[in-house]
Structure formats: C-alpha cells, structure tokens
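User: I'm writing a short methods note and want a consistent example. For Beta-phosphoglucomutase, I'll paste the sequence; you return only the structure tokens, no commentary, since I'll be parsing the reply automatically.
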Amino acid sequence: VLGGVLFDLDGVITDTAELHYQAWKELADELGIPFDREYNEKLKGVDRMASLKLILQNGDRKFSLEDMQRLADRKNERYRELLLTLTPEALLPGVRKLLKALRRDGIRIALASASRNAATVLDRLGVTDLFDFVADAGAVALQKPDAEIFLNAAEGLGVHPLRCIGIEDAEAGVVAIHRAGMQAVGIGTEETLPDADHHVSSPAELNPAL
Ligand code: B16
Ligand code: MG
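Assistant:
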C-alpha cells in the first residue's frame, strides 16, 4: 500500500530552472564564458558546485577551489534575490490539488530536492504546510543518481522505501528513485525519461480527484 510520495522540486513542483539559468547566465557573461538555455538543461538536478564546473568547462581559465567557492556563492546570492520574485502562481498546474488530495488520503509527503534553497522555495510558493518532511540537500554526500536523498526523505517520513513512490523530471532522479527501491513517476515522455515506470506530461494528470 502506498505510504509516501517523494517529490523532486525543480520541474515537478515549480520551474526554478529559469531562475537558476538567469543567475548562472549573469556569472557566465561576466567571465566571458558562453552559456545558453540549451546548456542549462545539463544542470537540471545537478548540485551547485557540479553545475559551476560544467559551466567553467566551456572557458579557458583555471580557477582555484577558493575562487570556485566564491563564484558559487555569488551565483547563489543572485539566485536568492531572484527567488523573491516567486509567488504561489509559480506552482505548476495541479500541484496544490495533488498535495491536498494525497494528504486527505493519509499519504505522507516529502521533498527530495538537490537544492539547498528548497525550503525557501516552498515558503515562497506557500506550500510548506503541505509537506511532512523536507530532505536536507546539504546533508547528502552522494547526489542523484545515487539513492541517498530519496532514502533520507523516506526515512524522514517514517515510511519504508518500498511503500514510497518518487516523482521526477530528470533521468538521474528516476535512476535514484529506482536505486532506492521505489517506483518512479516521470514528468516527461518515454524519450526523455526512458526508465520511468509511468509517464505524465504534468503533475495535474496525477490528481486522483480529477
Ligand atoms: P541550489 P532539483 C536542483 O533542484 C536544480 O535542478 C539544479 O539546477 C540546481 O543546481 C540544484 O537543485 C542545486 O540548487 O543551488 O539551490 O542548492 O531538481 O533537485 O529540485
Ligand atoms: Mg528536477
């Protein structure tokens, strides 16, 4: 029996990818490194430092670890400024209804996002109260496609992983869900998420009440 549903954040609950893009773009422009929306797709679900390294690959300068930390911090400050523009209207269609329907059915709800800003995003979207647990991305040693963040989320809910499902829009996330022993719902298609057990084009399609 289903006991818990674990949500990815970006691409599932809201589209923060555009705000990440704007913040990275400003940094890349300053550094004179080419960066566009297509390349930004590679950063989805990838943590902050790994994202920075992917961007710096396209430049010819070498940076020390301290320099890279400063660049990552600078991007994050800009990203957090941009998060102030986020409102409940930025929730993807059907998400609030789905969260409420799950709660009504006694199913526990957790967030399993690689973002260290996840709690802030949920606050801005006005859905913090609808989550029983938010996994701490900062405490995770192994990123998706490792299972760690999904296992932490299930543990935080107190629900056995085999009684949880995960919802993801990125293939690395789908692999992580499977490694955690859970069924994976993919927001996407057979082409974009070949390993997902079920596909929907939007969270609205998951609403049991619709
Ligand atoms: P932060 P998700 C991920 O969120 C984003 O997809 C990814 O682009 C971002 O770099 C990562 O969070 C880290 O975010 O800099 O806020 O810690 O899809 O796992 O919800
Ligand atoms: Mg995502």
